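S.,

Sequence below, as promised.
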Amino acid sequence: MNPKVTIIIPCYNAEKYIEKCIRSAMSQTYKNTEVIFVDNDSGDDSLEIAEELQHEFPDLLIDTAPNLYPFSWEEPVEKALSMTTGEYFTILGSDDYLSEDYVSNFMEKILNSEEPILVMQSRIKGIDENTNPIDQDISHTYSNIEEFKKMLLERCPVTTPSVVYKTELHTKGIVRWLASEYLGAADYDLYFNLADNDVFIHPFDQWLGYHYRWHEDQATWGMQKQPLNYDFMLQNQWREKWGM
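The prediction came back faster than expected:
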């Protein structure tokens, strides 16, 4: 049997989108998949919608986690990872959704690669609040870790929603989030840490099936309004550490 893949759905106030999100995760053609939904102290009906869907999808796993760090998904993701049985995992934004062959597509890349893939990313397609396609496709390309490091020191060259991880990296403490220090920029710090541990994030320019929703309430905009520029801080910290 092919390796099990865990789709983690951390959720905070996504009642407008969560049903489509969960249905897309539960309808993957890749059969060895588990889905873990963790509510992050939502103040809307997100959790209730998930619990209602659980009647239709009894394999859907549901839990909750406290909301400690603004614009971060560390708390619900760590809760899910304490429950996961997947050999690989990916994190699906609660306002996004997947094409039904998304997991099959990225696992084909992983299983057919000539070299081991511990982490990978792929292109994301943008949609608006009403699920209409918009011209906001994003992907990144680079050839090796040294090139990736140089890019990291200028900007974040990772489409975060599309990243797939080998679960053992979390077990070893290499995949971790420091949201207490960096809030929603903890993902950016994580990519620095992966490069520092010689873990290559394999970039695939193809779109494999991730639909990314742009809207005014997403955490991306909240982080940009913070008085402290976390991206600039991380770049300086890692530039000093790497001597670059």
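The two ends are 44 Å apart (CA to CA).

Coffee later?
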